[in-house]
Write a structure and sequence with these properties.
heterodimer; A: 317 residues; ABC transporter involved in vitamin B12 uptake, BtuC; 2 strands; 70% helix; 1% strand; B: alpha/beta; Rossmann fold; 2 domains; 6-stranded mixed beta sheet; transmembrane transporter activity (chain A); cell inner membrane (chain A); ABC_transp_permease (chain A); Autoinducer 2 import system permease protein LsrC (chain A)
Chain lengths: 317, 499
């Protein structure tokens, strides 16, 4: 048990240390607003992280999540401004995310184009389309109903936090206890053996990307409904943050192993760290350096634990 | 006997939890082919790793060329003339033959000035060596275009270029078809006449009698016996390896074949498969013989939907079936035990239980959710029925021995309750004990009405286990032999297209 959940427990310990230190030294850190901001930020990144975990466990990568989020956000904002009711706006964001994810998935699973290439193309093309379409203008002002989702509180916490937690728990359950979950791990561990066991590997790959897109659509709604405008650079660099969280959370970048719980804790660690820098008065430019350090520490810990450093270079897995 | 080339005395090697070698003596003289046999885990690999500098012995001494020697690294062993040709070819597929011959240093004596590489001299030297072996090899060709046999030739030539005095061959005939095996043997005899000492490791005992001078049997890390092959027998070797006599090596029971379960009619796929037709009946084991590249695996892949055929018809229990995906094959009751157990048969990090349930997840689930209790029950049932030796169903498949891993693959497919079982080299690299168990299992399954298609490069296995043998050559079936009329010679005649 200790071994199995080792990564999760390590991150939890690091989180406790960091939060404990900040609570003691920075009285402001303890107030409800800080906590709620951290959790809300972690909610939308975490939801994208669920999809990314599945994609990476399946042995693939999706770097288009930031651009997909921006597209969902802009279309949602535009629809809201045109007077569409909020439930329709949410549905549109989900459908759009699913559609873009399905496009990625179809190109990867059925045309066999490597995922890094396909999602690099969609990352670039979608970002370009956004600039062309908005000409750089922000979508604003937004109708009063827009911020309903982002600002409603239940038991003192914003709705997006609850939705994020529900999504994380549901995804963790699905990966551990369903056929599709087992198939994703099998595919990522050994695609040949998975196919020869009768698993439709193309279908699984397609759905993993479609699901990643759908989750981006959901994350968009958790994120942008907190603000009164949609910016064109929404989601810029999100892929780096999410992939960092997934790797820090213990998912094997070569596929086959990883948990959604680990990813969510990774997201929390990164979010709390960013916030800590603000409190400690350290320049935000250090944020990136620290994220990089987290990746190196996490990966080094893995390699030392599994004894992989004893193997020659190029001996992946 | 000639002078001793390499002498090991009292070699002991302890790994965490296992005494891999326990005071083993081993000697190799110049111009000798010394076979090393034993079940998986007997200590053969550890012994050759000690000779070749991969491992250091905990106790014992090594004398090489008449003086005490240590080989602290593989490089040190190689520099002193000890070459290993591993089971899996260790070449660089995209580099040319010439580049492969010299890769990994050894260029030094051939460098003219500084670090410049003298290709002309390297090529001349390589041509000399290849010619001395009496073979032809295109030095400019990329290695991936060579056959398995030619690739092995490259490894042998590479060893000779390094003036190897000792060549260790680990299951060298694994990837070879019969005529290539003959060629390899004549090459080995030629190396022997040059005074090279050869350590020859193989699971195929008949090869040892064909090519070796002496044989050493290891069991559980100990040397059981060393004897000239002329003074031992196949049965005696097996007895020494397993510590017991295998009463029936091929426990094939006579069956009355039932109704046709699989009918294949003019199945074709470009040139690889030319209008193949045959019938497999319930309770029958049909052997599929042929050289590597003859279309046996292509046929299996076509039947299982991995590479669907372009032409022809397949009928299962008299009903037309189109198989375009392994998942479909599974639903139709076809199972396929692939050639490469670790790469294709198992998800190594998955537990034994998760591997056993992989093909039947749907049956073990409700609304897409896996019923873990039923999954564990099925897994335990198969572990017991197939006598899979594992500490438990939650142990990763990677931790099991080759024979037990193969039983997991077989179990996974038996769980799917197939009508037709295609087995591609089911006992390759499996030790003698586990091999017999797999053969016994095949007989039992056939007895219960399963139709089994057995692909094997091991002729004794085909002859011992099949009711009928189909022989393939260049994508077509060139002949069919009944159990009572089949011989190695007849199979080889048909397989080489000489008939």
């Amino acid at each position: 048990m200790m071994m199995k959940w080792g990564r999760e427990l390590t991150i939890l310990a690091a989180l406790a240390l960091l939060a404990g230190y900040l609570s003691l030294t920075q009285p402001n850190f303890r107030d409800a607003f800080t906590l709620s901001t951290i959790l809300t930020n972690a909610a939308y990144v975490g939801v994208v992280g669920i999809g990314m975990t599945m994609v990476i466990v399946a042995g693939q990568i999706d770097i288009s999540v930031g651009s997909m989020l921006a597209v969902c956000a802009l279309i949602a904002g535009t629809l809201a401004r045109a007077g569409a009711p909020m439930f329709l706006v949410v549905l549109a964001s989900l459908a759009l995310g699913l559609g873009m994810g399905a496009l990625n998935g179809a190109l990867i699973a059925y045309l066999r184009i490597p995922s890094i290439i396909v999602t690099l193309a969609t990352l670039t093309a979608l970002r370009g389309a956004i600039v062309w379409w908005t000409k750089g203008y922000w979508v604003m002002p937004l109708p009063p109903g827009w911020k309903f989702l982002g600002t409603t509180h239940i038991l003192g916490l914003p709705l997006p936090v609850w939705i994020g937690w529900t999504a994380v728990l549901a995804a963790a359950y699905v990966l551990a206890h369903t056929i599709i979950g087992r198939e994703v791990y099998a595919l990522g561990s050994n695609p040949q053996a998975a196919r020869l066991a009768g698993i439709d590997t193309a279908r699984v790959t397609f759905w993993v990307f479609a699901l990643s897109g759908l989750l981006v659509g959901l994350a968009t709604m958790l994120h942008v409904t907190r603000f009164s405008m949609v910016q064109t650079q929404e989601g810029l660099g999100l892929e780096f943050l999410v992939i960092t969280a997934v790797v820090v959370g213990g998912t094997n970048i070569f596929g086959g192993s990883g948990t959604v719980a680990g990813t969510y804790l990774g997201v929390l660690l990164l979010t709390v760290t960013s916030s800590a820098l603000t409190f400690l008065g350290i320049s935000a430019t250090w944020d990136q350096a620290i994220r990089g350090a987290f990746i190196l520490v996490a990966v080094t810990a893995d390699i030392v634990r599994t004894g992989r450093w004893r193997q020659p270079v190029g001996w992946a897995r | 006997m000639a002078e001793p080339l390499l002498q090991l005395r009292g070699i002991t090697k302890q790994f965490p939890g296992v005494l891999a070698l326990d005071g083993v003596d081993f000697a190799l003289t110049t111009g000798e082919v010394h076979a090393l046999v034993g079940e998986n885990g007997a200590g053969k690999s550890t012994l050759i790793k000690i000779i070749s500098g991969v491992h250091q012995p905990d106790a014992g001494r090594i004398d090489y060329l008449g003086a005490p020697a240590t080989f602290p690294t593989p490089r040190a062993a190689a520099d002193r003339g000890i070459a290993v040709i591993y089971q899996e070819v260790a070449l660089f597929p995209d580099l040319s033959v010439l580049e492969n011959l010299y890769v990994g240093a050894y260029l030094r004596p051939l460098r003219t000035t500084g670090r410049r590489v003298d290709w002309a001299r390297m090529r001349a030297r390589a041509q000399e060596v290849v010619a001395s072996l009496g073979v032809e090899l295109d030095l400019g060709a990329p290695v991936h275009r060579l056959s398995a046999a030619q690739q092995q030739l490259v490894e042998i030539a590479r060893a000779l270029l390094r003036d190897a005095r000792v060549i260790i061959m680990d299951e060298p005939t694994g990837p070879l078809a019969q005529p290539d095996v003959e060629r390899l043997f004549s090459l080995i005899r030629q190396l022997r006449s040059r005074g090279v000492g050869i350590v020859y490791i193989s699971h195929r005992l008949e090869e040892i009698f064909a090519v070796a001078d002496r044989v050493t049997v290891l069991r559980d890390g100990r040397r059981i016996i060393t004897a000239p092959v002329a003074h031992t027998s196949r049965d005696a070797l097996i007895h020494d390896m397993v510590g017991r006599t295998l009463d029936a090596l091929y426990p094939k029971t006579a069956v009355n074949a039932g109704t046709p379960v699989l009918e294949v009619d003019a199945l074709g796929k470009d040139a690889a498969l030319a209008d193949v037709s045959f019938v497999l009946r319930r309770g029958e084991i049909v052997g599929l013989a042929g050289l590597v590249g003859s279309g046996r695996t292509t046929l299996a892949h076509a039947l299982f939907g991995i590479d669907p055929p372009e032409r022809g018809r397949v009928r299962l229990d008299g009903i037309d079936a189109r198989v375009s995906h392994p998942g479909q094959a599974r639903e139709l009751g076809i199972a396929y035990i692939p050639e490469e157990r670790q790469r294709q048969g198992l998800v190594l990090p998955f537990s034994v239980g998760e591997n056993l349930s992989l093909a039947i997840l749907r049956r073990l689930s409700r609304l897409g959710f896996v019923d873990h209790a039923r999954e564990a029950a099925v897994a335990r049932d198969f572990v017991r029925r197939l006598d899979i030796r594992t500490p438990g169903i939650n142990v990763p498949a990677a931790a099991l021995s080759g024979g037990n891993q193969q039983k997991v693959v077989v179990g996974k497919w038996l769980a799917a309750q197939p009508r037709v079982l295609i087995m591609d080299e089911p006992t390759r690299g499996v030790d003698v004990g586990a091999k017999a168990e797999i053969h016994r299992l095949m007989s039992e399954l056939a007895g219960r009405g399963l139709g089994i298609l057995l692909i094997s490069s091991e002729l004794p296995e085909l002859l011992g286990m099949s009711d009928r043998i189909l022989v393939m050559h260049r994508g077509r079936i060139t002949g069919e032999l009944r159990r009572d009329e089949a011989t190695q010679e007849k199979i080889m005649t048909l397989a080489t297209g000489a008939a």
